Structure formats: C-alpha cells, structure tokens
Amino acid sequence: MNNKYKVVIIGCGVAGMTAALYLNRAGIDCIILEKSMPGGQIVDNGNIMNFPSYASISGSDLALKMLKQITDLGVPVKYEEVKEIKVDKEKKVITSKDEYICDYVIIATGRKPKLLGVKGEEELRTKGISYCAVCDGSLYKNKDVVVVGASDAAFEGAIYLSKLALSVTVLYRNEFRAKAYLQDMIKKIDNISFVKGEVESFSKDDRITIKTKNGNDIITDGVFIYIGQIPNANFLEPLNILDDRGYIKTDDNLMTSIDGVYAVGDALNKYDYQIVIAMGEAARVALEISRR
C-alpha cells in the first residue's frame, strides 16, 4: 500500500499543523487528514490578540499561514473524514475515501461550541458573536457585552470580561449552574448584572439586539455564548479511550491507553483551551515520537 506513513495526524487545526511541523523537521514522514477546513475552531476568531509575534491576527489568516508553512515543507494534507481507527501491529486509519497505515496516530480533532440554534446566530459569528472571552474580549474594551449561559465557563468568561468591558450582562435561562465560589465572586463585581431569559433571536444594526422569549430586548456591542462544547471524537468510541463527556483520555505524556495513539489539543478534557497550549502539546508529542 502506498498510503503508509510513520505518523498519521487527524485534524488540521493549530495542534495538528504544529505536530506536522515538528515531525517534518525531525525527518519523520507524516500526513494530515482533515474533514473540513484547516484551522478548526480558530477560523471563527475575528481577531486573535494573545498569539506571540502578532499584535492582532484573524484566525483564518493564522490558519492559512500555518498551512502554507507545512505544505511548503512538503507535508501532505488530504481532506477526508476519518471514520475509524483499527489497531493491530500497525495502525490503520480508515477515511471516507481511503485507508492509511502508520506506526503512530496523533488525534487533534478539537471541539466545537454548542450553538443556541436561533435566528441570526450563524450570520453574526465573528461579527459580534463569539464563543471565547479570552480570544475576543479585548475587542470590547469599554463597551457593553452580554454573556449567555450560567455554567462555570460562562461565569469565568464574565469575570474576565468585567476587567475589559464597560458592562457585562449575564443572560441565563433557568438557574445558576456555576460552582458556588464563582457565584460568590461574580456577585461582588460592580459592572456585572444578571437577566433571566431565553434568547429567541439576534439581529444587528450598529449594535446587536437580543430578542428574548419573554419579550425583553437587550441591546449590546458583543455577545459571548457559553452553553457548552462538544469534542469531535465520536468516531473513537469503539477504541474505549473516551471519558464520560466524550473527551479523549490520555496519560501525562498525552498517549491514550493504546500504545502509539496520542491526543492533543481541544479534544482533551482540561482546564485551559488556548492556541499556544494546544501547540505546546503537539510539539511535546512530536518530539516524543522522534525519540522512540
């Protein structure tokens, strides 16, 4: 079979491309398999302002720069959805189009935000609606923002935004689900307020209007939605390497319970989800493989 590589990388986000870069520099042949587009979730980031070397860069521009770097080095990228991984003496990665034999697999499939699924949400993604306060909060310095949700992540996002924004309104549907210490903390912050309601739609003129089902409209400059994330890992269920939330389980060296099968990036259950953290994990795994 011609489709044989030392390493198959599943996912062409920042983690997958970083792994490919380090493997290529170590003289290890690898391929990236991606089901949709390069960049993953960062493509939804209008401006990234915490990536070293760039004061500001869009997620799509960063993804394209990284893609050019690895393809210029000769790393093949194929746009095929991985359906299954079979493990024996060699690993077989089966896609919608082909099969690939390898010694090592690096899973870098990331995750995606849960969407409210209401009118106007899709149209305003990156145009006033975000799913990451750390990524996009600096765009709303001294402006009004709304955080949708009442989970730990929502409250942490609201607390972070309170240091930048003029005001933060937490829009929650039923009850607070955040841990007690976060509830105590957030209630002491003067520029954070709470509104109970459920989003019906978004629209935008100069500012964003949030229409709620109880008839109260909220006008704001930016919206941050925190109703959960979904790891892109369903296809791994037969391997028994997922936790009860669908995230990939690994040891301290980022290897799953299957020897030679690693996972990096946002498909892992961890506390911080940042570009540089995912890249660091990918570099660690690539260097580990180069030493084996």
Please estimate the helix content.
10-25%
Report on the biggest sheet: 7 strands, mixed
Low-confidence parts lasting 5 or more residues at pLDDT below 50? Answer: none
> What structural category characterises the helix and strand content?
alpha/beta
Strand content: 25-35%
**Terminal residue distance:** 24 Å
Mean of residue pLDDT values: 94
Per DSSP E runs of 2 or more residues, the count of β-strands stands at: 17
Shape: elongated
What's the helix-strand series?
EHEHEEEEEHEHEHEHEEEEEEEH
Number of helices: 7
Radius of gyration: 21 Å
Give an overview of the whole structure.
- The protein has 292 residues and is α/β, with parallel strands linked by helices.
- Helices cover 24% and strands 27% of the residues.
- The protein is built from seven helices and 17 strands.
- The protein has helices spanning 14-25, 59-72, 121-124, 133-136, 152-162, 180-186, 275-291, and strands at 4-10, 30-33, 77-78, 82-87, 91-95, 99-107, 111-113, 129-130, 144-148, 167-172, 192-196, 199-204, 208-212, 217-220, 222-225, 229-231, 261-263.
- Strands 1, 2, 3, 4, 5, 6 and 17 form a seven-stranded mixed beta sheet that branches. It has a five-stranded parallel beta sheet with strand order 8-15-9-10-11, covered by helices on one side. It has a three-stranded antiparallel beta sheet with strand order 12-13-14, with no helix packed on it.
- Strand 1, helix 1 (14-25) and strand 2 form a beta-alpha-beta unit.
- Helix 1 runs parallel beside helix 2 (59-72), helix 1 (14-25) runs parallel beside helix 7 (275-291) and helix 5 (152-162) runs parallel beside helix 6 (180-186).
- The chain is elongated and about 60 Å long.
- The chain starts with a strand and ends with a helix.
- The mean pLDDT is 94.
